[in-house]
Amino acid sequence: MSRFPGQPYFDYRGDQLYVEELPLADLAREYGTPLFVYSKASMLAALGAYQRGFGDRNAKIHYAMKANSSLAILQVFAQAGCGFDIVSGGELERALAAGAKGSDIVFSGVGKTRAEMKRALEVGIACFNVESEPELEVLSEVATSAGKEAAVSLRVNPNVDPKTHPYISTGLKGNKFGVAHDRVLHAYQRAAQLPGLRVVGIDCHIGSQITDVGPYLDTVDRMLDLVQAVETAGIPIHHIDFGGGLGISYHGEQPPQADALWAQLLAKIDARGFGSRTLMIEPGRSLVGNAGVCVSEVLYLKPGETKNFCIVDAAMNDLPRPAMYQAYHAILPVRTRDDMPHTYDVVGPVCESGDWIGHTRELAVNPGDYVAVMSAGAYCMSMASNYNTRGRAAEVLVDGTKAHLIRERETPAQQMLREKLVP
Ligand SMILES: Cc1ncc(COP(=O)(O)O)c(C=O)c1O
Ligand SMILES: N[C@@H](CCCC[NH3+])C(=O)O
Questions:
Q1: What cofactors does the UniProt entry give for this protein (predicted)?
Q2: Domain 108-283 is in which class?
Q3: Which end of the chain is more exposed for a tag (fewer CB within 10 A), N or C?
Q4: pTM across the whole model
Q5: Which residues, judged by CB distance below 6 Å to any ligand atom, belong to the binding site of ligand 2?
């Protein structure tokens, strides 16, 4: 059993931190740093917990690929039978490139463009998760002029507090997402009248990094009340999509396990008489977050007047979550030393005081050592930028004793590819 909750595929053997059967230090030496390293077994285990939770129910898991959209990771989930929840035309093309079929894809997002809708209709996606009444009108126009029928679900804003960081709560009245609870019936009636649309389902997503079952239980009640109301109005709802949002352990959080969560939710859904419906979910972070780390080299140890800095070669452009959400990621030495630890702010080379990865961390490291920023599988690489003209990091997928380079480090020339000087 690993001493890192939620990350059993990363652990020390002697003084070396391993991913599955490989020492991280070897990977860092071979591929350079900063380097994202993912464990395939960890992703499949996380997916397995959801699959166990649903057992033989009529259920479909759409991986919310915004969490990590690297092609080889999408391929792992496609091969394991997942569909994909997408939020842009770019994600649509990536999902297809990774082997998904159109019918494996649901499309969320408040700002779908006509061009994105047209392309999604062309490839026959399973469902548009429509987020507003004006979007229904546009989708109807686009579908009609393309001679297609768009399968539609309305994303409901159930006004449930997910008790998470305000930037990642999405199901509260004040959030931009979804159709307001008291407009839902009206919007379904409109959807049922509009040409080119076929109502198939209902969906919601209340927020991310949820560690408590309470908000999910409230959401189930509100969603099922709505299904009842919409069906009473004569509009059948074939699937119910509860979104994603289940949290992971970054720093001692104890979110419910996916199978236990779903046992509890299914009991409630059954008790309300909806147990035989098609159920859908869109997990992102809980499938990949604890399956990845970012390995970084210590460049300098810099004593300061009020604190000491450990300057590493990963930065806010690779790991934006601390700067954006004051998020905590554990930082571990890739090889332990017997030396006395010192307290450091672990920071990157980017020219911003907000470029920090961890505050007041106890570490025994020297320049040239590697550290692993843990729980970096979700919303790190997919939110990485080129700020300070830093290339995006390389990525390696580990499968037992095998390491696959799934993304090469980006070069400055590659960053400049699409730019032009004025003649
Ligand atoms: C519509 C939708 N579905 C699913 C997700 C996945 O969320 P998480 O990564 O928290 O599981 C998100 C992101 O919050 C989302 O916006
Ligand atoms: N990017 C956020 C999660 C956003 C979820 C998408 N709606 C994070 O890292 O926590």
A1: pyridoxal 5'-phosphate
A2: alpha beta
A3: C
A4: 0.97
A5: 66, 168, 170, 208-209, 321, 325, 379, 383
